[in-house]
Amino acid sequence: AKAAGRRQWRHYRPALQAGLVERHELNEHLDVAIAESAFQLYYQPIVDLHTGDLVSFEALVRWPHDRRGMVLPDEFIALAEESGQIVPLGAWVLERATQEAAGWHAVSSAVRAAAGRAPLRVNVNVSARQFRDPGFVDVVRHALGTSGLPPCSLVLELTESVLMRRDDRINDDMATLDGLGVGIAIDDFGTGYSSLSYLREFPISILKIDKSFIDGLGHSPQQHALVEGITRIAETLGVSVIAEGIEQPEQRDLLAAMGCPLGQGYLFAHPLTAGQARALVRDATHE
Ligand code: C2E
Ligand code: CA
Ligand code: CA
Ligand code: CA
């Protein structure tokens, strides 16, 4: 493997640990990829834990690369945040994901409505740097306008790093998005400095409990109590909950028993290609 030379570093070394020259090179590659929209979105189902019904998909970006294969976001998102390239990349993700979701609506909304089911949603990850960009709300408005997706079918997943800073503009932007009907989720809840007070300070509609808590279900009474407590408080405040990274049937059963409404994880499905997601939408519509 050593003989393969330094080009191999990318296969195992996260971008932020790379040297300056390598980073510079990766930034240039990212510029080209952004200019050519050379990314792909995968879509991971989010399901109702009680009925198994498909309710949303989380859009997850990948970078298909001729030499490196499919590059995962952990290898380039942090670098794109650092360089500011996340702003145009994130705008592309929003445009693409809302267009795709409008396509799901075209084939499923009428049938779902007749069966009393809400329209499918799409969850889009938004990094702190992207959210703080002054043009962000307009990017969201533009994506909704060109796709025709109803705002209430879009959920923006923010990490607490957005919420930690006290900043009037961020509060105004959240209020504007909330006013449009766009949902706001706190991602990776329970890691870092998550605080339940965010739930009353900001117009949060969904809380995503991090996989590290779900992993402990069934073994750790403490984790169990935490997940159950978070779920109860969220319910009381009218905030929905998605449990992330469900891999075992026992985890799903415990979560459903404690009243957690929604879940996501390899137990249900891995992230799917756009074509696979479309096929699932069709199947789930007519089941
Ligand atoms: P995240 O938002 O916490 O997304 C969940 C990650 O967990 C995804 O990894 C998903 O493939 C993985 N996952 C889902 N279910 C399971 C499971 O049951 N077991 C395990 N072990 N893993 C599971 P992925 O796609 O590699 O994304 C990694 C992170 O990259 C995401 O974490 C998110 O923070 C970031 N990311 C992905 N797409 C975007 C994007 O379009 N914009 C931004 N700003 N960040 C993104
Ligand atoms: Ca997420
Ligand atoms: Ca997450
Ligand atoms: Ca995560």
Automatic annotation (TrEMBL):
Domain of life: Bacteria
Domain called EAL: residue spans: 23-285
Entry keyword set: Membrane, Transmembrane, Transmembrane helix
Protein name, as recorded: Diguanylate cyclase
Biological source species: Streptomyces rubellomurinus (strain ATCC 31215)
Portion of the full-length sequence here: 743 to 1029 of 1031
